[in-house]
Amino acid sequence: MNATTALRTYLDFEKPILELENKVAELKAMQTEGKGPHIADEITKLEQKAKAALADTYAKLTPWQKTLVARHPERPHALDFIGGLIEEFTPLAGDRYFAEDEAIVGGIGKFRNRSVVVLGHEKGADTEQRIKHNFGMARPEGYRKAVRLMELAERFNLPIITFVDTPGAYPGIGAEERGQAEAIARSTECCLRLGVPIVTVIVGEGGSGGAIAIATANRILMLEHAIYSVISPEGAASIIWRDSNKKEEAATNMKITAQDLDQLGVIDAIVKEPTGGAHRDRESVIIATGNAIARMLSEFDGKSAEDIRAQRHERFLSIGR
Amino acid sequence: MNWINNVVRPKISGLLSTAKRDVPDNLWVKCPDSGQMVFYKDLEANQFVVPGSNYHMRMGSQQRLQHTFDGGEYRVVPVPTVQQDPLKFRDGRKYTDRLKDAKAATKLDDAVLVGEGELDSLPVVAAAQDFRFMAGSLGMAAGEAIIAGMQRALDLRTPFILFAASGGARMQEGILSLMQMPRTTIAVQRLRDARLPYIVVLTDPTTGGVTASYAMLGDIHIAEPGALICFAGPRVIQQTIREQLPDGFQRAEYLLSHGMIDMVVHRHEMRETLARVCKLLMSGVQATKAKDTRKMNGKPYVNGASVDSKVIETAARESGVVEPEAVPNSQRFEPGKGDKPKRDEGGSSTSANPKDAPRGA
């Protein structure tokens, strides 16, 4: 615990928790030096206090704080979920037109004894990986690869699981030149056309069109502190408020949290995160996510391709009606 | 480009009002391209194309539909009403107030206007997005309008023409605006399944979530000269990569040379082009339809089931039918029986017996 405390990235609003945890660590160090038994009580008390503060803070995160949690560098990313949930994962690469885009990872593998196709935005865990995966911001090739893999799934009758975690599609010259908009539109269209079930989990940031391209699913799950939005709070602040300091107000007004989206009927279920967020206990959140996916997928067992397609269409057409 | 709107907006809204025009007829408009000054009246008469420079100015949705349909006549296709301001959004001002203003200024219900009528005598349904209405942004109302328009084309079995113009998703409706991307895509798929032409005309500007959904899924993509068509706008890209953007980047001609659209068409030739394209595609559709009504080439379509279907006799018919021939046991090939000619061991009985070769071959 002490070692991870030292290494963990603390968000600004977590500072009081950090202080408590540091104090506990100090006292524990003193205890090992043998400074008397009365410290043990003090340690337990402080530990409980830190725990309570953490639970308290995370029970009432503001939408902006959730945005920060959703972007937390230690939050499990797509490859962590794939690593924890998919056996025999075989990554597949390339859009067969132009390039391999590692912002979207994908492949085939086994999820709880059934073969599946998996797709996900990968942000990367360290600087090198982040650059390799372009911070989870896909170019047209990423979406065209997604289409390719989804068509593969359709051909071999494999369910599709997607993990969404992207700030948005990459805004660059090359991306525009090669038809970013068209690539996203085709990917959304492909999702809608398939006769195999698609289950999407918004695990971190669901960034606009870049997200919807692989999130047009039969069932959409969202982690408790994930966000899903038409534009980032910063983007909305600078465009609508014309003031980048209004990002907290934007985050609240835009209704971007899992709880908001559940109320609006955009998502189907929320996967609870451990106290203090997914990054404090990655393993348990990955297992919980797996359980939720399994439950959602089982609902489509024995359903015909027409029924699965019709359910997906109905699901989206009914939003807002 | 804000100043263009500022110049043009009062004119157009004045034009739209049924009351007496409050726009002076001698008002000048400056061409954003060449800087030349043109009479508003001349501009209007020229479909808002600046006569000297051929610069295509933005156009209101009512005028757009008028210039598309025969005789400028069309019937407005009704669109289901949607929940106003589902998020109770406010950014200093209430979203409902902004909506009210936009409605008053444009005399429109929302950013998309759908009409049905005839285009060179061919029945069509057409929708036009109006950039004056909150930057033509795609929200729930606009999404429903696109879906209703496409459904109308399905019901009437006509082509659907879309004039796209949009700054992207309506941010004041948050995630519900994003949801219009898959929703409208479902309607596009239905048109496609029904084999009805879906023609997209990309006008200045078509950006963001609109480009990334229904506006890039047409059977044929036409753009107006100089139109900005993109996913991420030039300013966003410049802020991200911090380098100079290439000349003509994200303009219609750039998209044409990069394979994203089929053609760039001058506004004066738009009607003729649309009519031709729709008719060419529809003639195929109508031939398919004829099959359904059990007619083909003017004759009943029988699908091989008719008793009195005429069969064309050919010489091949006589010779092509191979009659089964009774082969006496003594002549049958039996491996291991050595009393038959051995020159064709393992061969089939046909090839062993030259007289059984297909007659007339």
From TrEMBL, chain A:
Catalytic activity: N(6)-carboxybiotinyl-L-lysyl-[protein] + acetyl-CoA = N(6)-biotinyl-L-lysyl-[protein] + malonyl-CoA
Cellular compartment(s): Cytoplasm
GO biological process: fatty acid biosynthetic process; malonyl-CoA biosynthetic process
Gene: accA
Keyword RNA-binding recorded: no
Self-association state and partner proteins as the record states: Acetyl-CoA carboxylase is a heterohexamer composed of biotin carboxyl carrier protein (AccB), biotin carboxylase (AccC) and two subunits each of ACCase subunit alpha (AccA) and ACCase subunit beta (AccD).
Function recorded in the entry: Component of the acetyl coenzyme A carboxylase (ACC) complex. First, biotin carboxylase catalyzes the carboxylation of biotin on its carrier protein (BCCP) and then the CO(2) group is transferred by the carboxyltransferase to acetyl-CoA to form malonyl-CoA.
Protein's pathway: Lipid metabolism; malonyl-CoA biosynthesis; malonyl-CoA from acetyl-CoA: step 1/1
Protein name: Acetyl-coenzyme A carboxylase carboxyl transferase subunit alpha
InterPro entries: Acetyl_CoA_COase_a_su (IPR001095), ClpP/crotonase-like_dom_sf (IPR029045), COA_CT_C (IPR011763)
Species per Swiss-Prot/TrEMBL record: Hyphomicrobium facile
Keyword set, alphabetical order: ATP-binding, Cytoplasm, Fatty acid biosynthesis, Fatty acid metabolism, Lipid biosynthesis, Lipid metabolism, Nucleotide-binding, Transferase
Superkingdom: Bacteria
Keyword Nucleotidyltransferase annotated: no
From TrEMBL, chain B:
Major place of residence: cytoplasm
Extent of Basic and acidic residues compositional bias: 334-346
Protein name in the entry: Acetyl-coenzyme A carboxylase carboxyl transferase subunit beta
Species this chain originates from: Hyphomicrobium facile
Pfam family, one: Carboxyl_trans
Similarity field: Belongs to the AccD/PCCB family.
PANTHER family: ACETYL-COENZYME A CARBOXYLASE CARBOXYL TRANSFERASE SUBUNIT BETA, CHLOROPLASTIC
Function: Component of the acetyl coenzyme A carboxylase (ACC) complex. Biotin carboxylase (BC) catalyzes the carboxylation of biotin on its carrier protein (BCCP) and then the CO(2) group is transferred by the transcarboxylase to acetyl-CoA to form malonyl-CoA.
Record note on quaternary structure: Acetyl-CoA carboxylase is a heterohexamer composed of biotin carboxyl carrier protein (AccB), biotin carboxylase (AccC) and two subunits each of ACCase subunit alpha (AccA) and ACCase subunit beta (AccD).
Documented EC number(s): 2.1.3.15
